Automatic annotation (TrEMBL):
Keywords: Plasmid
BREX system Lon protease-like BrxL N-terminal domain residues: 10-132
Pfam families from the UniProt entry: BrxL_ATPase, BrxL_N
Name of the protein described by the UniProt record: TIGR02688 family protein
């Protein structure tokens, strides 16, 4: 109840009980469509009945085209909810709409619709008004209202974020995209943020290879209408980049995120597709038919892999497998085997943001620059540096859209960003060790002694002063929470690498020390980490 009250004060009119969307009928359409409708019906239990009835009446799906045509013939007008895809008819110089509920029966579409909503060229969900002209015997599209929220100003979203502590906000954010934070470890929460990163950071490209049923595609596809999924099959320059016949932009210039699902079953034999792809991933531009176009779409490559040991990229299809030029342009490799399988326990049922409102806020964050000064390891290339900075920017946008972040958290996010890029480099090294030699691990950053003295319990101040005077370098970390499952069981005193000093009673987590423990005993314990 406390969370609900806080959420409603922070984001009035944009909170929805996620337990309301568990109805079986709601799984037939994308999550953002359902939440859009529920929110506009009041977001109550009564709204569930109203939206269920609305979908039963207005979303018919394939197999009902004869009934819809019958209604059009009788009344001349029919309203439905569906996905509209506009196709260009060059022979007639016209635009035709394809609606799954109408099967292959064409719908006349006004030319300006594709300019008003470019996404209709590849499919957009919305409310459609179909009109039947008895004279011409044609069906044409009247009104089209897409299901997507628009934010004129980001400030209310940023102000709402300030009402939450960081841990609360992270859980609230994950709950908003349908994930139960109580079922996740801190590490898994961070990994899910990485999956969301392309929604807030332009031209961020990642690869995830892992087991089936972990929701690799589900999260992005059901969070934003600006994410388009290419599911296997053959990809062409006209579809991805620019169609020279119709003079229409392809998927990459149209959407914010393009997801290549089941990548092992996607054909990449066309050399022009891959060469243009590499150019785009490097520069954010591509040339096609004498035109040079710029785009900001983030590319996500997803595939199944049973074995998590490197090189996991051995499952990539012919054309991508072993291509270091392609792989080096990937900003991060997500450890797919660390994501849990989707089960009912992983689905959130509490109050959180309506997902289309969240998606609109993330869209507004996308062009903003979030950067901090960080010291990157020596030997990093410009691609490495660009990748790490993009990841750090995306994570900061998700966690701190109001730009107020603690420095110690930046350090943790920075190390996570380094890890994602290092996973790519490890694959590159295995494919071509001469061009990508093994990188030496940089020593972890250390605390200053003065900082440590301000953190340790007062009875231990003398012991740590003695360690300093004996010449021991300062530890890498000061006091840290010690976890048993999801419960904090105590706090350590300091850590050198993996060697912890802990108070009495916590010997399972490191070396137990008293204020009068001999310096020699501590030195002998931590010397392997120095």
């Amino acid at each position: 109840m406390v969370l609900l009250e806080k959420a409603e004060r922070a984001f009035p009119g944009h909170i929805l009980d996620k337990g309301l969307i568990q109805e079986e009928v709601f799984y037939r359409v994308p999550r953002y469509v359902v939440e859009y409708l529920l929110a506009r019906k009041g977001g109550t239990r009564e709204a569930v009945d109203a939206v269920r009835k609305l979908l039963e009446e207005r979303y018919l799906g394939p197999g009902h085209e004869q009934w819809i045509k019958d209604q059009l013939l009788r009344t001349g007008r029919f309203i439905l909810i569906d996905r509209l895809e506009v196709q260009v008819d060059l022979e007639r110089g016209a635009y035709r709409g394809r609606i799954p509920s109408l099967g292959e029966h064409p719908v006349e579409v006004r030319p300006r619709l594709a300019e008003e909503h470019p996404g209709v060229l590849y499919g957009m969900w919305g409310t459609l008004e179909l009109l039947y002209d008895h004279a011409s015997r044609k069906v044409r599209l009247g009104q089209f209202i897409p299901f997507e929220a628009h934010l004129k100003d980001l400030e209310p979203f940023q102000r709402g974020r300030q009402a939450f502590e960081e841990a609360e906000w992270l859980d609230f954010l994950l709950g908003s995209v349908g994930l139960n934070p109580e079922a996740l470890t801190p590490r898994q929460k961070l990994l899910y943020l990485a999956r969301l990163a392309p929604l807030v950071e332009p031209n961020l490209h990642y690869l995830e290879l892992g087991p089936r049923q972990t929701g690799k595609t589900y999260l992005l596809r059901n969070t934003s209408a600006e994410a388009f999924v290419v599911s296997g099959g053959k990809v062409s320059p006209a579809v991805l980049y620019y169609n020279q016949l119709t003079r229409r932009p392809g998927l990459i210039p149209t959407y914010e995120v393009v997801i290549f699902d089941e990548i092992a079953h996607t054909a990449w034999e066309d050399p022009s597709v891959l060469s243009i792809l590499k150019d785009y991933m490097e520069s954010g531009q591509f040339s096609r038919g004498g035109k040079t176009l710029a785009a900001e779409a983030s590319l996500v490559f997803l595939g199944n892999a049973d074995d998590p040991t490197p090189p996991v990229t051995r499952v990539l299809p012919h054309g991508l497998r072993g291509d270091t030029a392609f792989l080096d342009r990937i900003h991060g490799l997500l450890p797919g085997h660390e994501f849990p399988k989707i089960t009912p326990d992983l689905l959130y049922r509490g109050p959180a943001l309506v997902v289309d409102y969240l998606a609109a806020a993330l869209r507004r964050l996308r062009p903003l620059a979030f950067s901090v000064e960080v010291s990157l390891p020596s030997g990093y290339t410009q691609r490495d540096i660009r990748a790490v900075r993009k990841w750090l920017s995306a994570l900061l946008k998700l966690l701190y859209p109001h730009r107020a972040w603690p420095e110690e958290r930046v350090k943790e996010l920075f190390e996570f960003a380094l890890e994602l890029r290092e996973r790519v480099y490890e694959e590159l090294h295995r494919l071509n060790p001469d061009e990508f030699p093994k990188r030496s691990k940089a020593p972890p950053p250390r605390l200053e002694w003065k900082d440590l003295f301000a953190l340790v319990p007062e009875p231990y101040a003398g012991l740590f002063q003695a360690l300093k005077e004996a010449g021991l370098p300062p530890p890498h970390e000061g006091p840290e929470d010690l976890m048993e499952g999801r419960k904090v069981v105590g706090q350590s005193l300091a850590r050198w690498g993996e060697k912890r000093l802990v108070p009495p009673g916590l010997g399972a987590y490191g070396l137990e020390v008293h204020p009068d423990t001999p310096v020699e005993a501590i030195w002998a314990y931590v010397k392997e980490e120095l």
